[in-house]
Amino acid sequence: MFSNSDRFKESFLKRLESMCGKGFEETTKRDQYLTLGNMVREYISSKWIETNELYRSENKKQVYYLSIEFLLGRLLVQNLLNLGIKDVVEEGLNDLDIDLGDIEECESDPALGNGGLGRLAACFLDSLATLNLPGHGYGIRYKHGLFDQKIVDGYQVELPEQWLRHGNVWEVRKPDEAAEILFWGKIETSYDNNELSFKHVGAEKVLAVPYDMPVVGYHVDTVNTLRLWNAEPAAFAPNQDILSYKRDTEAITDFLYPDDTHDEGKILRLKQQYFLVSSSLQSIIASYKKENSNIRELHHSVAIHINDTHPALAVPELMRLLMDIEGLTWDEAWKVTTNTLSYTNHTILSEALEKWPIYLFKPLMPRIYMIIEEINERFCAELWNKYPGDWHKIEHMAIIAHDLVKMAHLAIVGSNSINGVAKIHSDILKHREMKSFYDIYPTKFNNKTNGITHRRWLLKANPGLTNLIKNTIGEDFVHQPDKLIDLKRHIYHPDLKEQFANVKRKRKEILAKRIAEKNGILVDIDSIFDVQVKRMHAYKRQLLNVLHIIYLYNRLKEDVNYTIQPRTFIFGAKASPTYYYAKKIIKLIHSLADKVNNDPRVSKIIKVVFMENYRVSLAEDIFPAADVSEQISTASKEASGTGNMKFMMNGALTVGTLDGANIEIMEEVGKDNIFTFGLTAQEVLNYEENGRYRSMEYYHHDLRIRQVVDQLTNGFFSEDEGEFESIKDSLLVQNDQYFVLRDFASYIDIQEKVGVAYQQRDKWLEKALINISHSGFFSSDRTIQQYADDIWKIDPMGVRV
Ligand SMILES: *Cc1c(COP(=O)(O)O)cnc(C)c1O
């Protein structure tokens, strides 16, 4: 079917006609997409079956990665690339006058995630399959992924995302492997034959139906599985209100992260978490029991990973299944549970650490709550032995305290490994945030610096750069991203520099075209493309970037002789629908863009662009076109970041704080090839502890700061003067929690250096190439190999078809 382009063309045309019932000339792009997608899935299926059979027959240890988010991005072209048939397909389609890129545009961009955490899970799946590691993802098949963002009048408007509207060619529904999930009801405890038993009565049953999607490794025969669960009504008692039952049930998998500011939303989210965990664990145990008889040895064959605390209910749920269903004693079950589970922490922001009120938790999951209480009591007793009389410490470390269930504590106590996602983040966990746990479990804590799959973010997103690298150092880096370092020997060759400059320029042209189409703004290809794309959040400090632009505008207005290297400031960001401040910053960026882009003189030097609906497919067009990567979070707040790695791999230079993986990027490329500024994490944490920061002092003592901050409310923007008052208040009245004004001067200085450095064209190109050559370390293949060796203890399996 895909052996050469003629064979492909022949089967494609045949299939197109039989599937769509029309002649080739009448078919639409969508017909063509669906036909090609189905052909590819069919081609995958024999490898998929082989892989599953191999896993069954070899019966070696497998890992299951539980995540409430998988931010996959489009799959068609990535699958073609990984299968090694992209060229054949592209050639065949070209003969028919079809552009693969146009067909790809028909594929929806599955956004079953918010940002970095979900994208990491997607990169990990790609690396697991490519490294021939037996590892599968378990998640939720949200009917609506992350909302589509529209900008109306400078304000964000959310529309429901519809990735399933035209079906999903990659999924296979497996109704025979459905699991039953119980909510509400009561637990009846009985004691007979010397044994306690627990019966869940009056529960509401929900059916979890799996949809499996293939995860294709790159140029290998391994095809792993991403299993996404769909909630459906199960058999129910006849006197129930059927309609409301049906509605409540289906609501569980309707939306990614429903609004959790109200209790109804909270219950739904908690339901999602238990739904994911219970269905996944039942499925994992069922498949284990097919090949193994002794459930007490589950951890020899199975590792289960908890991605952030959302799946932390895996701890009590595994205990429940092992005790209530499999008949193990508490101690036996605890041994298996803790030896099976491992956990990744993704944040130290206290508002992001999940805590559930008991009054919501207990009625919804009565048996799970009982088990957590027991885990907590045993844990507190242990603490009492270690720290007799230290009530304060015990209260602080308890899993249940002050009528709240603390999910991070549950995950730590119930796992054999707890990892952070960048060196500095893991250090902060060990020595500050989770110090008391590190004191009692020093060997559980470890670091696994995040990574990204170079197959999507280099090979797929930037074929021009990929070819240039291949022509320069050969193809080894494709399989061993560390080999990108070989590029370093060539960076002084003028040819390479020129070719790289051409590749970058071409991608800037493509992005500029898109900006012209979507935003109606013409941008200068010779300007610096200075990009900040990521979720909108106060700690990521898009505001610092904005204030710098206002400052530049002021200087350009005040002094007609002030010259700088022209720049295009590009933003992309979604704000959580209920996050008032974040939405204000989006409006502010638009007001600033109006002001700057409409000034006849200033707009020749700087421009501001906000790209709507930031998502994986848009990201694939942005990273290759960037010159400067903005990674300016308040030090200590960004656990790792992964956008920073995608920029680096595509030859953009980082302007960044010493935060998250920026630090490791600096260690890789050297201080001369990155622009760092601002407070260190230690300085930020010290300020937070001693309370000695006064943003007002910076406002009063730095004229530049006073001017830009005043401009938020003095009629400088055409909006009414109250529009941005809350932003000004966050800086002055609320004492600038994220140290924007504290880092302002240092940011202005480094940005000036960036402008000057860009004008030393040759040197800049060398720095960009040095960044690319050191980006191999940030491949998720390295990250996943470390998880496999140190945490999961799994080995690769060769698949032969
Ligand atoms: C990589 C990525 C992110 C994470 O970006 P950070 O800068 O690390 O926050 C978020 N969204 C999308 C679509 C991404 O591709």
UniProtKB/TrEMBL annotation:
<dbReference type="InterPro" id="IPR035090">
    <property type="entry name" value="Pyridoxal_P_attach_site"/>
</dbReference>
<feature type="modified residue" description="N6-(pyridoxal phosphate)lysine">
    <location>
        <position position="646"/>
    </location>
</feature>
<dbReference type="InterPro" id="IPR011833">
    <property type="entry name" value="Glycg_phsphrylas"/>
</dbReference>
<comment type="function">
    <text>Allosteric enzyme that catalyzes the rate-limiting step in glycogen catabolism, the phosphorolytic cleavage of glycogen to produce glucose-1-phosphate, and plays a central role in maintaining cellular and organismal glucose homeostasis.</text>
</comment>
<keyword id="KW-0808">Transferase</keyword>
<comment type="similarity">
    <text>Belongs to the glycogen phosphorylase family.</text>
</comment>
<comment type="function">
    <text>Phosphorylase is an important allosteric enzyme in carbohydrate metabolism. Enzymes from different sources differ in their regulatory mechanisms and in their natural substrates. However, all known phosphorylases share catalytic and structural properties.</text>
</comment>
<dbReference type="GO" id="GO:0030170">
    <property type="term" value="F:pyridoxal phosphate binding"/>
</dbReference>
<keyword id="KW-0021">Allosteric enzyme</keyword>
<keyword id="KW-0663">Pyridoxal phosphate</keyword>
<dbReference type="InterPro" id="IPR000811">
    <property type="entry name" value="Glyco_trans_35"/>
</dbReference>
<dbReference type="Pfam" id="PF00343">
    <property type="entry name" value="Phosphorylase"/>
</dbReference>
<keyword id="KW-0328">Glycosyltransferase</keyword>
<dbReference type="GO" id="GO:0008184">
    <property type="term" value="F:glycogen phosphorylase activity"/>
</dbReference>
<protein>
    <recommendedName>
        <fullName>Alpha-1,4 glucan phosphorylase</fullName>
        <ecNumber>2.4.1.1</ecNumber>
    </recommendedName>
</protein>
<dbReference type="GO" id="GO:0005980">
    <property type="term" value="P:glycogen catabolic process"/>
</dbReference>
<keyword id="KW-0119">Carbohydrate metabolism</keyword>
<dbReference type="GO" id="GO:0005737">
    <property type="term" value="C:cytoplasm"/>
</dbReference>
